[in-house]
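Entry for the shared binder. Reason: the reviewer on the internal report wants the predicted structure included alongside the sequence.
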Amino acid sequence: MPTLKAIEEAESAGLDLVEVAPKAKPPVCRLMDYGKLKYDQKKKDQSSKKKQHVIKTKEVRFRPRISQNDFDTKINRAKKFLEQGCHLKITVMFRGREMARQDLGEDLVKRIYDALDGFAQVEKRAEMQGNRFSILMKPV
């Protein structure tokens, strides 16, 4: 149908001429209420957004020469984060001369693995990034 005739028909019906498939040969248009189409599209986007699950990531930072009491406190905090369903990023930070003793950091990472054994799975193993070891864990 010619474009002018389609526009006249849409105006006489009190509707809009909406292009549905612009890449088709010839382009496909439809007579409809454009405001209602926009409203339905907005509602569909909102409902799909509600169904999405956003993963929260919490971080707990350690130092290589941490005392046992501080270690226990941070592990308990990490367990609470995991029980809430959050993913956990554990960071072991090195400063100054501690970089020469990275074996202390590796021992600390092993202690953390043992402490969080029943609560979390390792998603990404410990890797050195600058002056930090980083581990990503997710709840069991």
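Summary line for the report: The first strand starts at residue 16 and ends at 21.
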